[in-house]
Fold this protein.
Amino acid sequence: MKNQTERYSYKGMEIIGIDHGFGQIKTRYNTFRSGVETRDTEPSVSGDLLIYDGRYHIIGEQHKTFLQDKAQDEDYYLLTAAALAKEMVSRQLREADVIIAAGLPLQWNALQKDSFREYLLQKEELAFSYRGKDFKVRIRGALVYPQGFAGVAQDMAQFSGINLLADIGNGTMNTMYINHHKPVATKCYTDKLGVEQCVIRMQNEFQAISGSTAPHELLESFLWNGGSDILPEKYAEPMEKIARQYASQIIDRLREYEYNPEIMKLHVMGGGICILKHFWNDRGANVHFIEDIRATAKGYELCALNDLRRGKEYGRKGEAA
């Protein structure tokens, strides 16, 4: 049984944080692939089946195609419904009033947060079935935060001196400076340099060697486990070389942003921590790996709770906060 005390609510409404990643969707208690396949007829076999608006949506069997604007299609809305369902199961709920706490990459947040918030608020009530269970959710409000920073916002007391935070996801890498316990608004960056870029290169090399495609899960396991014995040597050696090149590219980009390992502490979070942990020779750099892959979703919830207590508006236009 999950610890039911680790959750936030406000005036009887559940605050549910959702990290809408390009590779994975994360909530406080759940992680799943951010893929959607929609069908008009019910599939014969599917574990994660969302039935919504008269159609059948298979959730999590693949990654979402990279989109710079997550509100461009319906997929992230369907993934939001699945995330709410999974989180409600963890909280032993089937019906709830909910405030969604979400986020966007650092440099996109200012331009896209209003449209993404409207996207999340497009319907006041959702009724759907997920994994054979019926759910009813009243979306009472939504708040959108900068990705990455939210995951460490509660730990600002630990960020003394000069710090560089690198949140390496599947689609993007978000980088920001946190100096003397405060984020530096003018030194935030978003690059399309996520882990998928490394996996694509590995896939191309694997196909050149074998003439066939490697299962995506196999290459991901290779990265997460630092190579190990997952692949035969003829594949493992070139795959490791690509991973080391990608790790070097990440560090080179950080150096472009004036990262100096001699005087700064580097904090790394997101799925990309596996690559820097296993395939980068840090040469004694001061590095802190934030292992909790759901830290950002949890951070969204805490940021939302604090804002709500301060009276921040959270509902639709014209509604009282």
